[in-house]
Design brief:
- By secondary structure, the protein is α+β, with helices and mostly antiparallel strands.
- Helix content is 40%, strand content 16%.
């Protein structure tokens, strides 16, 4: 029976190969120069901010590590209740807490971080990369602005900042390449399991055991701060690998956890939800929207 089937019947229709995708991304940069205005404005103060962060480096060979974990009850609030307050996604909340923590060590209200996307964006209607094997990851800078006097204003600022990024950031690399990027990387990997009792009966589970070095020693990491987190066994955990001195890193990580717990407490105890301008297609200003909602 197999001998009578065509290659397409056996393997499925051929999709877009990686080489074709590279050309598509390159062409995207040429065809979307309008995004250049957004990115030029976004990175206008990147060099200045980067210089401040670099002054915190203990040494380029330093590899200090600190981490924290939230218990299952707090993690469940983060997953199930927190997002209702300002119509947010979990990354909005995590980045709000991280941005507030960064201000503690940089003494700046605005800081740049590097975000990654899966890169498999629908930027060409005839392209099919659903089964294409390759490294598609995109990287792009994000400027995080906070209001240290208001958790609400910080959440709204971070949420709106992330929503304004065109096509999930794929245009930055296509237009500029990957030079002069922020040296603070943030990556929330998602929820690896449900955390419920039935997980214990699975044959395969995620464990927190050490796995040794995963990167070759001669593969230089230019990042000053690498923050990586995920939810496993019903608990959110974050690890931060850094070139900072241990005192500064400990301060950053402790502040990150404290700010995240404060945000979870604030949002989960609100008696109502609030819209931001992205929720109403940017037809009015945030100040006017706040006024309308305050009167309700």
């Amino acid at each position: 029976e197999l001998s009578t089937q065509s290659v397409e019947e056996l393997l499925g229709r051929k999709g877009t190969i990686y080489r074709q995708w590279v050309k598509i991304v390159k062409n995207y940069g040429l065809m979307h120069q309008d995004e250049k205005y957004y990115w030029d404005k976004e990175v206008a103060s990147l060099a200045e901010n980067l210089a401040r962060v670099e002054r915190l480096i203990e040494s380029e060979t330093t590899t200090n590590y600190q981490g924290f974990k939230l218990d299952k009850e707090t993690t469940n609030l983060l997953l199930m209740k927190v997002g209702r307050a300002y119509h947010t996604e979990i990354n909005d909340i995590l980045l709000s807490a991280f941005a507030l923590a960064l201000t503690k060590i940089t003494e700046e209200q605005s800081n740049y971080i590097l975000l990654e996307g899966h890169g498999r964006e629908e930027i060409e209607k005839h392209a099919d990369i659903t089964r294409t094997v390759g490294w598609f990851t995109s990287m792009y800078p994000v400027k995080l602005n906070v209001d240290q006097s208001s958790i609400a204003n910080t959440i709204i600022s971070i949420k709106e900042c992330l929503r304004q990024i065109p096509n999930k950031g794929i245009g930055y690399g296509a237009i500029y390449g990957y030079k002069d990027l922020p040296r603070i990387s943030f990556n929330y990997l998602g929820q690896f399991d449900s955390g419920y009792e039935e997980e214990k009966n699975k044959e395969w589970v995620v464990v927190g055991e050490g796995s040794g070095n995963t990167v070759a020693s001669d593969n230089y990491d230019s990042n000053i701060i690498n923050a990586n987190g995920a939810i496993s066994n019903g608990e959110l955990s974050f690890g931060v690998l850094s070139k900072l001195g241990l005192a500064d890193l400990t301060l950053l990580v402790n502040e990150f956890k404290e700010q995240l717990e404060n945000i979870i407490d604030h949002t989960s105890n609100l008696s109502r939800s609030y819209l931001t301008v992205n929720d109403v297609n940017n037809i009015i200003s945030q100040n006017y929207l706040d006024k309308i909602q305050k009167e309700r």
